[in-house]
Write a structure and sequence with these properties.
Elements (H helix, E strand, L loop, with lengths): L1 E6 L13 H18 L4 H5 L3 E12 L8 E11 L3 E9 L5 E13 L4 E2 L4 H7 L23 E6 L13 H9 L4 H6 E10 L8 E8 L5 E8 L4 E12 L2
Antiparallel strand pairs: 1-3, 2-5, 2-8, 3-4, 4-5, 5-6, 7-9, 8-11, 9-10, 10-11
Length: 246
């Protein structure tokens, strides 16, 4: 297992003084990147070999979001490997050692230049090893059905700053597009308790993206679809659950 401590900064706060969901997912990625660095093979070392990790699906559940200047610790590890995929587990602790969040993700080892999966290097498996304990019991492979129309929707243009070092839209950007279509009443009075997402296609630079959000048989649950309108391809699908801030 690998641990990384973070001190929450002002610009990482949301409108209610707590860290935003995007901030937490950013810190989870940073912890994973430092886990790579700890074995003397950074993400940039992989990038120089035209290799990267691509998120296929993931789930995050937060009991609460850390506040300004609060210190949190993220514990992360790999619980399972296949020849081309790995499942990363995460537990988020506050300063008192209480668990405030859990997350897991299915990552694909990917040839950036050829845009195809490749076998995970043997030395990565050896150095990272594998600890078969789950951070949370949740099926991140379960299919989520895309929606074609919705009550809430917005369009966005894919800019250069949306792209990451793997030359595709960073997965954090999809979350930001999703949040933009959440009703104001929910954003003002509730917090995102959980998000379950699937990444099924790549949004392309310069294309127009449509973010769709619809209630899912509950006033605090939503189904989401993000589609590339130029290619008519579904890029990501997700579910969110929201809880009252009080």
């Amino acid at each position: 297992m690998f641990e990384k401590q973070f001190n929450l900064r002002y610009f990482e706060m949301g409108q209610h003084g707590g860290a935003s969901p995007t901030t937490i997912l950013t810190l989870l990625e940073e912890a994973a990147a430092d886990h790579c660095l700890s074995m003397k093979q950074s993400l940039y070392d992989l990038f120089n070999q035209n290799i990267g990790w691509i998120l296929l699906s993931g789930y995050m559940q937060m009991e609460r979001y850390p506040l300004y200047k609060e210190k949190i610790t993220i514990r992360t590890w790999i619980s399972k490997y296949t020849s081309i995929k790995g499942i990363r587990e995460n537990i988020i602790y506050d300063e008192q050692g209480s668990i405030i969040g859990r997350a897991k993700g299915l990552w694909l080892f990917f040839d950036i230049k050829r845009r195809v999966p490749v076998r995970i290097f043997d030395d990565i498996k050896e150095k990272w090893s594998c600890f078969p304990e789950e951070s949370i019991r949740y099926d991140i492979n379960k299919k989520i059905q895309a929606i074609d129309s919705a009550q809430y929707k917005k369009c966005f243009l894919v800019h250069r700053y949306d792209m990451d070092s793997n030359k595709h839209v960073n997965n954090l950007r999809y979350l930001q597009w999703l949040i933009e279509t959440i009703p104001n009443e929910i954003m003002d009075n509730y917090y995102m308790h959980s998000i379950d997402g699937r990444f099924v296609g790549e949004a392309q630079f310069g294309h127009t993206i449509e973010s769709l959000t619809e209630y899912e048989n509950d006033p605090h649950k939503f189904i989401h679809t993000i589609r590339d309108l130029d290619s008519n391809q579904v890029c990501s699908i997700g579910r969110t659950v929201w809880k009252n801030r009080v």
